Amino acid sequence: MDLSNKILSAKTQKTSDSPASIQEPIDSTDPGVSQAAHVQEHPVLQQPNNGETRPPTLFVIFGAQGDLTKRKLIPALYNLAASGHLPQEFAILGVDGVFMTTEDFRLNMSRDIQELSTRPIDSSIKDWLLARLHYLSGDFRDPHTYEDLQTALTQLNTQYGTQGNYLYYMATAPTFFGEIVQQLGVKGLVINDKDYSRRVVIEKPFGHDLESAQALNHTLRSVLDESQIYRIDHYLGKETVQNILVFRFANGIFEPVWNRQYIDHVQITVAETLGVEHRGIYYDQAGALRDMVPNHLLQILGFVAMEPPNTFDAEAVRDEKAKLLRAIQPMNPIDVLQSTVAGQYVAGNVHGGQVLPYRSEENVAPTSLRETYTAMTLFIESWRWEGVPFYLRTGKRLNKRVTEVVIQFKSAPLMLFRKTPVDHLTPNVLVIRIQPDEGISLSFGAKIPGPQVQVGNVDMDFQYSKYFGDAPSTGYETLLHDVMAGDATLFQRSDNVELGWSVVDPILKVWDSLGTHAIHNYAAGTWGPAEADALLTKDGRKWRNY
Ligand code: BG6
User: Which pTM does this prediction carry?
Assistant: First the structure.
């Protein structure tokens, strides 16, 4: 599907796709509806329906008892149902090791939807969805589970008319991804056919380094065709990340200046105030670099820096992304020492509350050398970007939650202002705010009123919520919708994943060999270690202030 259509359809969904698949009309007192009504009135959104198809689907969730299922998948499916994006021929089969009946599962999910939904609940839609929920208990390693699964699939497929379209979602621990797919393969449950589809969604993390990612790709590809594999990165489900492409390529005025002649440098910041929460076991193995860079930050970088694809088709977009990732200058050990920083938080104050040091978090080793912060400078070896630094940073327990891309342009020449009090010109800065306070702003110099020539910095600002209303979403809606529709544009292809790991692997190796010397402490609630500031000051630049 065309990405621009996708975006338009999301905005017009309440008007053009009123929930035909749900028996009851949506309650007009639902604030989500009135918001959509506001959206409908906006002239920007008066676009034709994009002729969306909603293929019948049997949605199988491995890991049905997990957090992802209750916090994201089920609420996202509810939102899709509420906005009329699910087919009538639809059912969900949850699979997990915990013994439970379908009735129990429905009760739990009913409670979770109520608690975790991103929008007010319409009971008729909730009931519609719950009636389509089924549960199968079984150990993922046990071949009998897959015999039971085969029986359940046949029965549900007939009951709901899902026409043999099975979507398997791996919401399990990563150790099970390969195993489950192989077992599905043995039972012949992932054989595609021209009359129906069998697709598999693989959650993150996809491997923990290049070698393990290649091994997992190899296992998946021994059973599945690449076109059946949907490697998810939830950052690509964010409207504001998708909008980077539309912003760049739907506007004639930005593309001509989107290169080394006009751009001084780019900053990508993904800052979190949260610590590792209850994920110490995973996080103390992974760290900030593995957890965020090869996936989320490089996805953003890809959209910011890639060449325009010929179309928004999955392969065209993913080809360009692969070209871009391949063009990132590889780091040798000296580069790693000079261009990367690893940090770990110690005790500090976040949002007015004292927080523990990383090493005292639950399930974290008391002598852990794992980084909770990383910053780096990357260069892209291409005609467009030669010599333009891309500064990336991400960390936990920072001062503020903010994900932003900052494009700093080169300054205008000062000579014109020689005989004025103006002694410097501030460069134009384009800020793409991914979250929160989603929007885009462009700063420029303006004359401060008065007899003397003085230049002040002002902003042109676009806020998503002001134009399009607050979209009540989990961030998974578009991605789930796209897998059902067979659109892989927003999913990672095997080469994209491996290229991401190739960027970070050399860094991991050097940090490992440095041991304690690699890690710089920072107090929780600050902006990371001083060494990360030095990364920019040595280039005569500084991080954007928040
Ligand atoms: C996940 C990471 O992929 O992304 C988490 O594992 C991180 O550690 C999260 O907190 C950030 O996602 P978001 O959407 O909150 O920015």
Answer: 0.88
